[in-house]
Specification:
This protein is of the alpha+beta class. The protein has 22 helices and 28 strands. The strands form five sheets. Strands 2, 4, 8, 17, 19, 21, 23 and 24 form an eight-stranded mixed sheet that branches. Strands 9, 10, 11, 12, 13, 14, 15 and 16 form an eight-stranded mixed sheet that branches. The protein has a five-stranded antiparallel sheet with strand order 1-3-22-18-20. The longest helix is centred in the middle third of the chain and has 18 residues, at about 330-345.
């Protein structure tokens, strides 16, 4: 596994298959698709230089000069590794030679970043924009929590960033922050109606002093708006801190009366639409984020997810399956339109949903995911998850998220590879070409994607197609059995400058009957599990009548019968290479995970879990699929434990990290001693240290809730198994254990 981690450190890429099958048929037999999980702006090793000039591109296929290009120093020509086109070096490269190479040709710099100094001298002038959209249909206590959370971050917003504010309940109120000594104004819109961009322009007085241009689109200062009219609503943080704090201090519960048998009228859809229109009019193309703070379900106007009558429950998974959620499709359609508008404007939607009820994350998912937004789900605005997450968005230094904006992601490959699509937080730019596969997955049918918002850990899953090769073709290519991939990410760095990161990979391909051992040697089980997780989530959302358990089981059986060692019809002879030995365990846990089992989760929670897995890197996603379990005991320090009910012992403490929840679990004896207060007595100092160790580790990860532990453990001892494990607990469940799962797998794989 370490060699895959080294590759990830250098190039931010993990691939399930690091030795690739050479033909389409062999690729199909590999079961897990030829794919890559790439983290476009993962921090690079400190030794990698930032180049202050523009990259050199191939005149034919537009790929960037890289260490795999063939260079002829005598004629000053380089041959593109993708299309084999011959390119002349420009004049300023004339001094290059074998011992005087530019950085982009160094063999260790397969990933390198450019920040051209001469382009866009005005790029410093593009500030970030934060537009707060705040729900006021909540109890006073929640409004107090939200107020204190927002007040805490206002001081952290970079001084030159622009800030705007909308509050909403039954009506949507756009606050004029730049009132400069005059009476502060609020523009009020009816939350029950659809509001167009023209209505926003007209009602908010953008053309009182300057007539509207007769033709063309109204977009920012360049196209028809005065800076003065924009700075009424969007002001640098340093100038509007006082005004913003004044509005927040006076923030009150929505005054609209609510009958006892009804929900509060909350016009979330209209508020987000107005925010998008306003940003599109004032600051198109800048790195702007709409940050929505939602405290309950939308019940008023476009985007409603439930009626106001409390007698009608909010949609469940069962309702969605039976098509019995009357508001769902309409709301999704609204947010699909909003997603398209935000992607066109280059803006991001972040959602902070803090309520005991569902707020509509399942409907909002499309807009958050396509714009690369962040999503936080908590039970209250007073919860540390909300407060800490919000603070992290604005923190700088070692802790910052590295929030960047306006990204465009492009790909290039050798001629025998095509792209099916991308699963992850991006939107297709519909740039069709010879590299697009006929089959489409996720955001497909394109070789370029828009990433309105991206950060250090945003990861995309790319699914490839191997184009069929004739065997004669294979022999002629035997001399050069490498496939080349290039990923280009053009983005606005948090310092305001535009950068281009180029990652170029080379992977060996093999073909013919004796290639199985080569393929196994390059198999990365963790990356494979994460690709399966993203694919199964995508299929569950897009394919009607899709059976995820059956699909996962069939895939695993085919994988094991293709790559396992066994004698036909003899399950006891079945052996998997160490390179593949953990994949059955990953699939077993993926079948039981919240991505596949929606029982006991609301549609909002399921949407949240899937959105997070769809944007995280391999290491984090593996913990979501198969949680890590650490055991603490008197006679040994912290050590990894099997994710099995047998790990529960009376004299042990367990720490479970499932990424979304961190749980500390005390064995029965430890719990009795803790209740008796032994840890407070000086002679039991060792016991106090034992209790503290997992808490320190948990704090390093995040909070703690103890009821999730039993749902995650392998039920090796259940109420209907013959002999319970000594020391372990018994689980009351009808789930099969991993042992039974493995026995069935071996029996089916050898048939």
């Amino acid at each position: 596994m370490t060699e895959f981690l080294d590759l990830e450190t250098q190039d931010a890429v993990r691939m399930p298959w690091n030795v690739l099958p050479g033909t389409k048929q062999e690729a199909a037999q590999c079961v897990i698709p030829i794919s890559a999980i790439y983290t476009p702006i993962k921090p690079l090793p400190n030794t990698t230089p930032l180049l202050p000039y523009s990259p050199l591109r191939c005149r034919n296929c537009r790929s960037v000069l890289n260490p795999f290009s063939i260079v002829d120093f005598s004629t000053k020509i380089w041959i593109c590794s993708f299309c084999l086109h011959r390119n002349h070096f420009p004049h300023h490269y004339q001094s290059i030679s074998d011992d005087n190479l530019p950085a982009e040709l160094f063999p260790q710099y397969t990933t390198i970043e450019y920040e051209p100094q001469n382009e866009r001298p005005t790029s410093q002038a593009i500030p970030q924009v934060f537009f707060f959209v705040v729900d006021t249909c909540m109890i006073e206590e929640e409004i107090g929590f939200l107020r204190s959370g927002l007040s805490r971050v206002i001081g952290e917003i970079p001084e030159n960033s622009l800030v705007g504010l909308i509050t909403f309940g039954r009506y949507v109120c756009v606050h004029e922050l730049g009132f400069f000594g005059r009476v502060p104004k609020v523009y009020v819109f009816n939350g029950a109606k659809e509001i167009t961009k023209d209505q926003v322009l007209e009602q908010m007085g953008f053309f009182l002093k300057k007539p509207r241009p007769a033709t063309g689109v109204v977009a920012g200062v360049r196209d028809g708006l005065s800076q003065e009219s924009i700075s009424r609503f969007l002001l640098p943080a340093a100038d509007c801190e006082f005004a913003l704090n004044s509005v927040l201090d006076e923030l009150q519960k929505d005054p609209w009366p609510v009958p006892a048998d009804q929900r509060a009228p909350r016009s979330t859809g209209t508020a987000l639409t107005i925010a998008a229109h306003l940003l599109g009019v004032c600051v198109p193309g800048s790195g702007a984020r709409i940050m929505a703070f939602l405290g309950g379900p939308a019940t008023e106007g476009p985007g409603s997810i439930v009626s106001k009558a409390l007698s009608e429950p909010i949609r469940s998974h069962k309702d969605l399956d039976k098509d019995a959620a009357p508001f769902f499709n309409k709301a999704v359609k609204l947010y699909e339109g909003l997603a398209k508008q935000l992607v066109h404007q280059g803006h991001v939607l972040d959602v902070f949903a803090c309520a005991l009820d569902q707020v509509g994350v399942a409907e909002l998912k499309v807009a958050v995911e396509k714009t690369g937004g962040l999503v936080v789900l908590a039970e209250s605005f007073g919860h540390s998850v909300f407060k800490d997450s919000l603070l992290r968005v604005f923190q700088s230094g070692d802790n910052d998220l590295g929030l960047s904006s306006n990204g465009i992601f492009e790909v290039n490959f050798s001629k025998d590879i095509k792209i099916q699509g991308v699963l992850g937080p991006c939107a297709s730019l519909e740039k069709k070409g010879a590299l697009c596969s006929d089959t489409s997955v996720g955001q497909g049918g394109t070789t370029a994607w828009k990433m309105c918002g991206l950060d250090k850990s945003t990861s995309l899953c790319l699914i490839f197609d191997i184009v069929k090769k004739e065997n004669s073709d294979v022999i002629s290519q035997a001399a050069n059995n490498q496939f080349y991939f290039q990923f280009l990410t053009y983005y606005q760095h948090s310092n305001g400058q535009m950068r281009l990161r180029a990652t170029t990979l080379s992977r060996r391909w093999v073909t013919g009957p004796g290639n199985v051992q080569d393929l196994i040697a390059g198999f990365d089980q963790e990356a494979a599990a994460v690709v399966m997780g993203r694919l199964v989530s995508f299929k569950m959302e897009t394919e009607a009548e899709f059976d995820p358990i059956r699909w996962l089981d069939k895939s695993l059986i085919h994988l094991c019968s293709r790559f396992g060692d066994y004698q036909k019809d003899s399950p006891s002879s079945f052996v998997l290479s160490p390179r593949l030995s953990i994949i059955p365990q990953f699939v077993f846990n993926l079948r039981r995970s919240q991505f596949v089992q929606v029982f006991n989760n609301s549609p909002d929670e399921t949407a949240y879990f899937r959105m997070v897995m769809n944007r995280e890197n391999v290491a984090n996603s593996v913990v979501m699929i198969q949680p890590s379990l650490i055991s603490y005991a008197f006679n040994s320090g912290a050590e990894p434990a099997l994710l099995d009910v047998a790990s529960i012992a009376a004299d042990r403490i367990l720490l479970l990290d499932s990424y979304f929840t961190v749980v500390v679990f005390h064995g029965s004896t430890i719990a009795q001693w803790r209740k008796a207060g032994y840890q407070n007595e000086p002679e039991h100092k060792v016991f106090a240290q034992l209790l503290q160790a997992p808490l320190d580790d948990a704090e390093a990860i995040h909070g703690s809730q103890a009821r999730f532990l039993l749902a995650k453990l392998n039920p090796s001892a259940t109420y209907n198994s013959d002999a319970p494990t000594p020391g372990g607990d018994i689980l009351f469940t009808d789930d099969v254990s991993f042992e039974i799962f493995s026995d069935h797998l071996q029996r089916l794989a050898v048939q």
